Amino acid sequence: MGRPHNGTxxxxxxxxxxxxxxxxxxxxxxxxxxxxxxxxxxxxxDGAPQSYVDLDDPAHLEFEYARRIGHLLxxxxxxxxxxxxxxxxxxxxxxxxYVAATRPGSRQRVAxxxxxxxxxxxxxxxxxxxxxxxxxxxxxxxxxxGAAEDSADVLIADVYxxxxxxxxxxxLPYAREAARVLRPGGRYVANLADAVPFRFxxxxxxxxxxxxxxxxxxxxxxxxxxxxFGNIVLLASHEEQPLSELARRCSGDPFPARVEHGxxxxxxxxxxxxxxxGDAVPSPEPPDGAFSIG
Length: 294
Prior knowledge:
By secondary structure, the protein is of the alpha/beta class. It has helices spanning 64-75, 94-102, 115-124, 140-146, 172-181, 199-209, 221-224, 243-251, 266-269; strands at 20-24, 27-33, 40-45, 48-54, 84-88, 107-112, 133-137, 152-157, 182-194, 214-219, 230-237, 258-261.
């Protein structure tokens, strides 16, 4: 005789998501589930955090620098309207997903030189079929040089070879290509990283000032004061941007940031010349532990 049955059926056990590791061109990539958010994942490459994605809430931005770029995108007029965006650097496609969620109907193109990394993301963090996001494997500068003139409202450069910005994405010819691809009211946005004495940041300000009339920086105050190494977001445009609104959003963020522009940037660029292709160098190597986890 079988044991008595209480009339209920046990639910199938829920499988816990497990980390995924794969060798890719840029190193060892790892997708790790966030135990606090059911369908959220952290992407690292060689232990350095690259992207954070919540598949249930693509408008959630975890990294501080990504939140600042999100504020910039939100402040771009007209509010909520579709944008044409070119992304150089893909990661787990955090910012493309954000734009697709907050500005439906946007057309986005993503270029990343690491085809294996893009395959990993497509396999485990797939995009919705109607996302409007096209992903391709290709060098960021080559893709930029092949893009049509006046074809983008926003150009976001978030490219790192390991933990450093590649030198060919820091030069005056590169900046001129960015200006060519952007529409008159468009904006160039780059995720940079530096610390005192800010030689790399100064070189980028001098380079982009040769091409764009308006520059601004977004960063945590401690980074701008030289207290630690960290991310600094560069904004460049031909036309004035809504910096007051951007400053309000950044200062009210759970991770407050400052927006610096105009004469405040002069302290970085004294006697600094634009970077040419022949003398470009990558961004500085972060100090041990600056961005690693675990």
